[in-house]
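Dear U.,

For the methods section draft, I wanted the exact inputs and outputs in one place so we can describe them consistently. I've listed the two proteins in the order they'll appear in the manuscript figures. Please don't edit the token lines directly; just add comments below if something needs changing.

First protein:
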Amino acid sequence: MAIVKNIRALKGAAVLADRTGASPSLDLKKFNLIYGFNGSGKSTLSRILASLEHGKQQAGLPEACSFEIELADGLRYSSQANLTGLEERVRVFNKDFIAANLRWETGQASPVFYMGVDQTDSAAKIKPIEDALPTAQAVAEGERNVAEEREKAFAEFKKLVARNVSGRLRQPSRYEAPQFIADIEKLGPADTDKLNNAELDAATATCARSNPPAKVMAVGIPVSGFLNTIDSALNLAPKTIGSIMVEDLAKNPQMVPWAKQGHEYHVNHDLATCLYCANVISPERRQALTDAFDDSFSHFVTEVRTAAHHALQTLEAVNIVRNNVPKAAELSAEFEAPYKAAVKKLDAAFEDINPLVAEALRALNARLASPTAAISVELPPVQEIQERFMALERAGEELNEICEQHSDLVDNFVQHQRRARDAIRRHFAIESSQAFKNHVDVIASAHEAERVAREHIHELESELADLRSKIRQHGPAAEKINALVASYLGHNELSVVAVGEGYELHRHGSLVKGEPSEGEKTAIAICYFLSSLEAEDRKLKDLIVVVDDPVSSLDTKAMNYACSLIRNRLSGASQVIVLTHNHHCMNELKKAWKGASRGDQPAATLKFIDVRIPSDTGLRTSTIVRLPNHLRDYDSEYHFLFEKVITFSAAGDIHYDYTFMMPNVLRRVLEIFLAFKTPRDGNISDKLGTLCKRNSDLNPSRLNALERLSQIESHSDNLDDLISQSAMTIEESQAACAALLDLMRTVDPHHLADMRKHCAP
């Protein structure tokens, strides 16, 4: 089974440095030792790994913390996506585990369940259900993903429709998806309210206007002029006047106008002979012509001429009217289509009337040319003529009605624009209603499928819990825990006793009064944890076990036993990760795993949580690195600390990332050096005094810095306090460092030279 390989990404994890995909891999192995001082971030690291055990991010982590854990097979678990899947494989021992399971103040503990040997039938049913659970969970997860995708598709659909509608409305406030949903619910799918393309474009154009269009003038149709022309032609053209004409003029009607004009000239000038032919005009002839050209004839000719003139004016008026019909583009967009149709109808009506007027004008002009001859008028029947004129009137009325509607719109443009926007919204609500319903239906179907899948998981889990409750026994675990505790502490006065739904802690057979010692707590806690690993029918070979600080407050004997217990009991686990601040514990595990950490295919890795304060941030930052050689190669921390001393000395005024810990480092190196040079009891001042007496070259005044160091820094026999901030200034630390090296150079120059050689960074 795959093991944890790397923390691929990390952010906001308190003192632990951020990690990205570009960070060097931790490259964790089967056995892993991670050594770090108190406060370096081990607890945070254990909680990150514990998130895999619980399937969710642990409450003890910083609120802004995020991480991604990578397994050796490439599978990743992210706090931003999913942490489930390893709940049965990961087991973490840390402060949170102790707090959740062991209640020292009442002497109680949570139960550790083992499978009973006499419930084989129920046990046999568990495995198939356990095998079916991952599939059921995968199905439910798949259904959840489908539902999410359909929700996203629905959201995108609503957003796109709303964006389209908003682009058409051109209103000050943006039309958003919630308004679209409200329109769907409010307007309903009334097909009669759906706009055609022309209507939709017209409404859109209306919404786009910032100001109303101009009004247009109504069109005047000269129907009466048409009718008068037709009537005149019908009355005058065929009228018979031959009875009043002399015979020879009647035979030559085209000469009538010329003869009339000539007769009037001869009479007015009292001419007796014809100016044209020089013949005498007899009194009889003169009287005959006078009778022919009397007032009635003159009136008739004038009437024909007037009718012809009016007919010509009517045609000209028609041309003016047709040329001045408003253009469709001058009207509001929604009127353009019906207006164009009305104009087309009007043009057709004019085309039907024009031939009638032209024929009437032709007949009248012909009658003027031949006043005595009756002219036939080629016109349709009267009923057809009336129908054509009625069609012209209707076409004009229809056109003018649209013009009037346009004018009303101009007067009430704000209300009209609002109605146009309502029409657009209603149109898209109708047009999109079926697609909207389809989205709602498929989402509901997806959520129902997810609900059924989750219900199936619940049924499997309930059945599994029921079966386990029938076969679980927590009594046998008490014996295992007690055996480990007795071996651990070297006595059996403390024991756990199975009661009801858990355990009680007894001393000498009675419930413990008051809390056990810190060492006893540690022993009971680690033994309880180890005994719980194979509970619930878990197999050690499948487990990833994380142990954080397993040896707190133990004496040397118990500490050795604890380290041995962890190594031996967990050797068969899929993976072991031990985090410790204890140098002795680190050495014990290092000895066991150091060999396995070498070679082409190492099975172990030794790590160190390096704490420093970089100059660019000024903040304590921990980074997981390879265990430094001076800690890897030596059991004493003396070489590791001495390397820090000589590096600090060489840094001078340049920023040194470990300056904050140098007072403690200097104190610890000084104590170890003095322990070898003056192997007796006594404080630092006494031992420094002894060395001054033995070495006259020592300058007592230079040792004042070391005296200051001994006064400020408390006694420490381990590295736990190295990351605490000292009260000493940087200048005082540098002076103490120089004094320490001078002391070692004077008292034991060979030792100093060897240490510089072996501890060079």
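Second protein (the one for the lower panel):
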Amino acid sequence: MDRIFTIAFFLISPFFGITQLSHPNNYPQHYFRDPLDIPISLAGNFGELRPDHFHMGLDIRTQKREHLKVYAAADGYIAQIKIEPGGFGQAIYINHPNGYTTVYAHLQEFFPALASYIKKEQYRQQSWAISLMIPDSLFPVTKGDFIAYSGTTGGSEAPHLHFEIRRTTDDINLNPLLFGLPVKDQVPPSILELAIYDRTKSIYEQSPELIGMQKYKSAHGVLPGLITLHSPKVGFGISAIDKQSGSANHIGIYEAILFDKGKEIIRFDMNNISYADTRNINGHIDYRTRAAGGPYIQQLFCLPGYLNSIYKLASGDGTIDLSDGAIHWIRIDVKDAYGNSVSLTYRVHFNKGITRTLPEAEGKLCFPGNADRIEFNDLQVEIGKGSLYDSAHISYSDTAAGQSGDISAVYSIGSLAIPLQDYITIRIRPTSLLDSVRMERIVMQRSYGTRKEVKKVAWREGWAEARFRSFGRFQLVLDQEPPVILPVGDIDGKDLSKGLRIAFTVKDNLGTIRNFRGELDGKWLLFSNDKSRAFIYKFDDHCLPGPHTLKISVSDEAGNEAVSNFRFLR
């Protein structure tokens, strides 16, 4: 959107809160204790904006170190544990008698009895990565019981404890700051930028008008000024942050409310979100601006394909109708979970004499809520009803196979600035006939920038098919190269009686490892794989003194397998 002229002044007035707001859900106050024994300092809060997801709990700092004791937040029982290379890493789920579940993630180590139980289950299931439901009578806990040590496992980039509160019945995540946890906060949020959108156009085919707030920080009254716009229907968004008392770290806002002429139009709050809906952040933010390296802008209007949204609408979808030509007083209130707030007030109107026509984007115009199909040369693309948040022109082109060994052309589909909520199905027909052996080694590769994603294909009447959740460049690749198994240090033929562990890294030409298996003297051996960096076995009673043979088997996404055998003395 182009601004014709702007003479704008803003009211940015902070209102400070000491006690927590009264919330309609009436969550129990002070039922849950701090899961650590140090004052709560937040590195991230509930609803904070992250790539492809809302942050679904609190990230509690652990003083830049690991191995702090983690305690049960209330009475209950350990109902589940999860161990995975990414995501939560090592996590504990505790069910409580009041109908809530607390989650503790990125843990370094479980308490001994639980660790022993998990290890037995890993050997029984022959899998290090595990999601284990535990009988309610096995590990009861009392509020304040030691359950684990903090760490930085899984998707964690620095030591901290990820803490969640969920409803047990439906697994909906709730904002832990609404439960009266001892978090000091008297700092109001800050509005950094106002964004203005033409709501007669797709969100993906325009750039917003951005108005920075920095020079208006000292404004404490409504000053004369007017923003003149060229569209009769507009939407507003904000870039905003919050801070906790005593911390310079930026965290997310809790609530924003849009008013037109004193009437509430739309609001959103970070009260409760399901993991099934967390990817919907891409319908809440201006994804195109963020993908281009711009700020996170939270939209105060609801895109037509954003279902199960966090918005509460008084009427319509949050779009402001300026077609009357009158001056509209707009106000945006932004709050945190403790009642601290800031308001932004400005005036806008539509100049009916101003028009502007933009060239139409290339590609097929597709709409949210409609299934669509693109067919182009040896390409088929199926776009489901739930894939798009807003209408968009989906471009497509190909680059012909350039080498004799190429299996297909390279197809560019859509734009990385258009997010997908649901998967799309890509079908590509190979450029040459393939025998059954080579067909089994075909994968579909998606390229985006310098990164790649690889998936095994299914064959449908001569077409290779795979599903993806992002646009990009796609092609079929014949992969007949097995992974490479690389021991960390000398193992074969060595005396490891004084060693503490055995470790391997695995390299693959396409960067995807589907399976790793270690067998010691013919029996499965437990190798961890935190952050997918190295496969590590720590010596224990599964490797007694004496000579041993270790077999390592690895396969990639295409099904190529590598096997290595090592002999050592323990």
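Candidate sentences for the figure legend, describing the second protein: Residues 213 and 538 are 54 Å apart (CA to CA). The first strand starts at residue 5 and ends at 7.

Thanks,
Y.
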